[in-house]
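Hi W., the NDP complex you wanted:
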Amino acid sequence: MKIAITGASGFIGKKLCDFFLRDNHTPVALSRSIIASPEGLISTLEGTDIVINLAGASISKRWTTKYKQEIMDSRVLTTRRLVTALNQMAAPPSLCISVSAVGIYPDSGVHGESSPMRGTGFLTHVCESWEQEARMLKPGIRLVITRFGVVLGKEGGAAPLMLAPFRFFVGSIIGNGRQGLPWIHIDDLVNAMQWLIDHKQVTGVVNFVSPQLTNNEQFSKTAAKVMHRPCWFRIPAFVFKIMLGEGHTMVTSGQQVVSDVLFHSGFKFRYPKLEDAIRSIIS
Ligand code: NDP
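Structure:
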């Protein structure tokens, strides 16, 4: 199969490309320059079977007003251009998987795919706008919106940053530690993508999170245990407010999210337990 991917050069995109290549599929990277050209985008999409929309500027930089616009535009405009191209095609790919994030949900409660509850901050607003663009896809193309938790892997994403302080004996709990930290191991994310491709009846939202509900304190204590390090410190939330500005919410707040779709389908997680996921990353 030919699988077109926006954001193919990123942490998750590279992992997906490697996986599809190993499985004898042909990944096609939709670079920024291809996305920017309406004709180029349509001609690159011709003959593809699936499109996966991952593109988005990193949220880990300081959220200045200008950078917040980039976080938003890199997702919303890319998705709009992609959906416009797909809607114009006579023979479009049969499946479009468009990414979003668990930041769409509020910090209180436990949320499955059918939860109508929404958060209030900037990231919720980004996710809602991102998903809204994807939903403009014409009927006839199967649309799946994957809401990722924090993706844990060796080669990128948040895990190397989250685990580094533990290596240097300064791992800590952030704030009161009760903020949710939904996560998924990158190997499970890649397998779940293949699962979505295979299960043609699945449409709509699918939360990509492991079955183990986790909060920040549990994450820190598990990391400390696996890495044989102490977890003595608790860093007050205001320190992150000073350091990160509005972006402090990335670490001082978080959601509790489950994936009713993956759990009830019998999807087998290779890393259902955080301890094993962290062990695989530090090994
Ligand atoms: P990376 O930061 O590693 O990669 C981002 C990708 O998006 C790169 O290929 C980059 O291309 C591309 N990109 C950035 N800005 C633009 C733009 N303006 N136009 C087109 N492409 C752009 O991210 P990840 O691989 O970790 O994440 C992929 C997606 O998954 C992101 O949208 C992210 O928000 C979402 N997600 C990730 C989570 C995680 O834990 N990693 C959790 C929840 C959601 P280039 O090389 O040209 O810069």
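The chain has a mean pLDDT of 97.

W.
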